Fold these 2 entries.
Entry 1:
Amino acid sequence: MSNMGYPGHMELHEPELRDVPVTTVLAALADDVRLQIVRALAEGGEYACGTFEFGVSKATRSHHLKVLREAGLTRTRVAGTSRYVRLRRDELDRLYPGLLDAVLTAPAGA
Amino acid sequence: MSNMGYPGHMELHEPELRDVPVTTVLAALADDVRLQIVRALAEGGEYACGTFEFGVSKATRSHHLKVLREAGLTRTRVAGTSRYVRLRRDELDRLYPGLLDAVLTAPAGA
DNA sequence: ACCCATGTTCGACATCCGTCGAACAACCTC
DNA sequence: GAGGTTGTTCGACGGATGTCGAACATGGGT
């Protein structure tokens, strides 16, 4: 790519949900840590990345948030040194009606 | 368990859906081959294992069917040397309403 | 300017997962 | 019972994935 020299913020890679394979969406949700993040995000509103302390290092947390973002599940707003994440619930519910609710209302335990 | 010496057919391991972690169910669906199988099964009725010719060896097919069965998604009836598989749609729709429909009606392409 | 706080990226590592061929098991038919 | 059909199990192998610490990048505060 040729747009390397841009000094300021580079845009985050947030694909159109319809361009993401279903298997990618499902795989993104098929992880305990990421599911905890999604559950927290489902409360609504924005959360700074640092909000999610689920017993993993910040490197791992960053990795999981990247997976969610690139699966089209979250949107990220950059503000200073922080990043605020929110669920793309509307688009999700439109393209996969029932999916998110089914996952969220699921029995959390084994 | 003590029912080991039974000579004939041994029962297949088919867990209660509520005992299966959501992540296991989602992971089972997050694979192209298995999704094709589920789509075929969603037509209704029973299908012999050999029905599913999706460009993988029979060892691989057997593996995928095992994953689906142990995730609580399918039920298997043994008849002679064949095994007939069907979707546990009712239970699935009851425990995860909307999940299956969302996945099935999803755009198949990338 | 310096330091600190917030996140990302980079190896590295271990584990899991999909895939296959080959061997095995069960059953049916002739 | 010999052979064929159907399906499972057993290594083995390669690629993907979750995890971490350390280094890096960026922006805010004093």
Entry 2:
Amino acid sequence: MALEHAILVSLLEKPGSGYELARRFERSIGYFWTATHQQIYRVLKRMESDGWVDVRDVPQQGRPDKKEYSVADLGRAALSSWLHDPIEPESVRHDLAVKIRGAAFDDPTALIREVERHRLAHRDRLAHYLAGETRDFTGPAVSTAGAKAPLDAERELQHVVLRGGIAYERMMIEWLDDVLATLARFGPGR
Amino acid sequence: MALEHAILVSLLEKPGSGYELARRFERSIGYFWTATHQQIYRVLKRMESDGWVDVRDVPQQGRPDKKEYSVADLGRAALSSWLHDPIEPESVRHDLAVKIRGAAFDDPTALIREVERHRLAHRDRLAHYLAGETRDFTGPAVSTAGAKAPLDAERELQHVVLRGGIAYERMMIEWLDDVLATLARFGPGR
DNA sequence: TCCTTATATGCAACTCGTTGCATAGCAAGC
DNA sequence: GCTTGCTATGCAACGAGTTGCATATAAGGA
């Protein structure tokens, strides 16, 4: 399990509340690890009682107060230990692939609309990634302190992960085109 | 949840026992949906009591008897209904991507060995897929009955799913090379 | 004033998935 | 005779993830 670790990484990149984390899990880090707010609050509680994170009450005006979490030494150590622990290449869950194989026993052409929907979703996500890349990773590297940083690890590594997302979406779009061409070879009905 | 559906597809492709299904989930369908034997036996029980599958005791010689499952009408209907139900594009879980972003707060170069391990695993899987493609999808299309089938849906759809696996592995290998090049730009330690 | 929306946090129940363990038949080798 | 290994099925406990619901502050519009 690695939700704790995804949260640690996100909090190291920038401290924040459970609510803010939940929003980040809808974009950014969420492209590579999903979580709902309920899960995040529950895990944050556990991380707090384990001493992995520190909490600070932050009064706000115009909106409810929040609890801002930041990574404690124990959390940093836990992340480091996880990083040094080998993990197995991910176990996959591709509903769509199962559906495509299953379509052989139903009407294959009925899947076309579904595959097109997925293709659109991937096209949108690709556009979103590319926009983010242009926004955040073009122009000179500037560290958060404003000083020139020739090798800003945080930025470089975020960028390579984003490039992975871009490559994945491009691959998916090409493959879904292949799937559509294959499905189109079958006549309607069976 | 779709383990039921993955099992239905696999049983439609060929009836078999829980044990045999578990082995298929280590290859073939398992490349796109993972499951352990405990999970499979539990779900098969439920599917049986729901009338989705039929069971037949098959005595064997030289080994324990087995229960052979095959898809019942209710199961076929359930699969069909699932196929017509739109699903959301998958939620992703990429430990490695989280690790790479986390490495910015530790020693980035310490991840190199781990990334190389993953690269090897993907290279092996690619080789495995390519061998399977050569074995099963070259030469003339021949249906199970031995007759020429100009449009064998089952075979065509299995092939396009396999091509997806191949494209995925190729993309991953290229990306991991990119990751390795990025990590190499950081000196040892920090 | 009421309704909606956004911020912000949380509980409870349930399902799904993983891990560890248990059992049993039979073959092959030491 | 004993151990190892493969086939074959299963239980129990736990941990992770999902779904539905609940609560509270406050801004903005109908």
